[in-house]
Amino acid sequence: MDENAAARFRSKIVAGPEAHDCWIWTGAIGDDGYGRFWTPTATGGQRMIRAHRYALALLTGGLDELDEFHVCHTCDNPLCVRAEDAPTSHLYAGTAFDNMADRARRGHHNKQAAAAFFRHETKQQRAHRARVLRDHVRAHGYDPEAVGSLLRGVTSGQQALF
Ligand SMILES: [Zn+2]
């Protein structure tokens, strides 16, 4: 992995203060609501990769190894890049089947705020909300109350954002 790219990647992460909080990606966001990151290729070009995939690749040692896997979120927050070699990780590599089984298993019992936020949304809604969340974290840092509210799709004031 390219060390400069890795350092650039890490500089765009804002980790929550609590032990189990998400680590929010504050870089570019694509139209699917997921983070975007560009890494240099061996031939001098650039490769675009989803930020959560890159986060896990940093752990596993390479992007190629990940190519056949889906990278799944335990938190359903598309901006979360919390990849750790520990049970506290919010990201893991699985097959497409794992991904579906995991969603089915968690279903409506998931108490994570992000679940209600991002599930059952169109791509456009998800992208919009992801950008609002990112912009808030960029401007104010990880304010747990605000992040929680944004993850539920409502601002901390009276006015619903969406
Ligand atoms: Zn998370």
From TrEMBL:
What SUPFAM superfamilies would the database entry show?
A: His-Me finger endonucleases
Q: Which domain of life is it from?
A: Bacteria
Name of the protein this chain belongs to? HNH nuclease domain-containing protein
Q: Which organism is it from?
A: Kocuria marina
